[in-house]
Each structure stands twice: as C-alpha cells, then as structure tokens.
Task: structure prediction
Amino acid sequence: MREVLWKIDRALRMLESCILAVGIISTTFIIFINVVLRYMFSAPLSWAEELSRYIMIWLTFIGASLCVRDNVHVNMDILQTRLPFPAAKVLVCIVDLIAAGACLYFGSLGIRLTTIIKTTHQISTTMPMLPMWIVNLCVPLFGFLLAKNYIHLFVLNLMRKGEIITTIAKGGQS
Result:
C-alpha cells in the first residue's frame, strides 16, 4: 500500500511539474508573439494578455503545491528551532494538521465558487470560447493538492520518530 501511495505522489509531482513547464513556455511564447505583433505590425492579439494572466494564476497555485512538497516556502521556524525536540515534533504535526484543514476548507470554497461560475455560464471577456469555470478550477485543485501534501507531511512525521520531516521529496528525508 505504501509503495502505491508513493507512486501516486510521484505521478502527481510529475504532472504538476509538467503543467508548470508547459505553462511557463506557453506564457513566454504568447507574450513574445504579442510583443512582436504589437511593435512590428501594430496588430497585437486582443486575448494574449488575458490568457497569459490566467496561465500565471494556474502556475502560482500549482507551484505553491510543489513549494510545500519540497519545503521551499518561506518558513517561520524560530519557535520550532527553540523548542526541545518532542515539543517541536508536536508543533510541526499540529501546524501540518491546521494547514491541511485550512487547505481543505479553501478547496471546498473553491468548489462552490467554481460551481456558481459554471452554473451562471460566465465566459472570458476577450476569449468567448473559454468558460471562466476552467480558469477558477485551479482554486479547488490548489486547495486539495496542498492539503494532500500537508497530510502527507503529517503522516511522515508520525511514522518517523527520531526526526522532523519537512519535505516529501526523496522519500520524506528532512
């Protein structure tokens, strides 16, 4: 069972990384083409800026999940470093649980928001072929991916007794 969960985690990480790579390349390409069209031909694409913005929003949310997974977010760990190990371990577990709960709540709010936007048939201003619920789908996805990572960290910290796990990368080594 444990190996299956690690395979799922690796697959999700690969998917998140691929989404980030494709998003960065796409945004760079769209903005480059739009700059060339604007300054060389005086004919910019009306939708390029809006699509780039939406892709950047997705990149931000998906990237935040990877940051938690790899422990590259800004941390305030002064209390954790000053406490004795057992208390620091409990503190880390409590923080992981609170963060997971907040992310699950955020994800559930995102589902409600996305559902409302879908039922009202909102579309993009400059791209009528793009329903806005697709743009907003990153909110619940972000919440649940982040919650998964915090729960994963919590479980790793429960399983490993002699260390505090701060990253899921490389099998949960701290």
Q: What stands out?
A: The chain is about 75% helix and 0% strand. Residues 2-172 form one domain. Residues 21 and 59 are 9 Å apart (CA to CA). The chain has a mean pLDDT of 92.
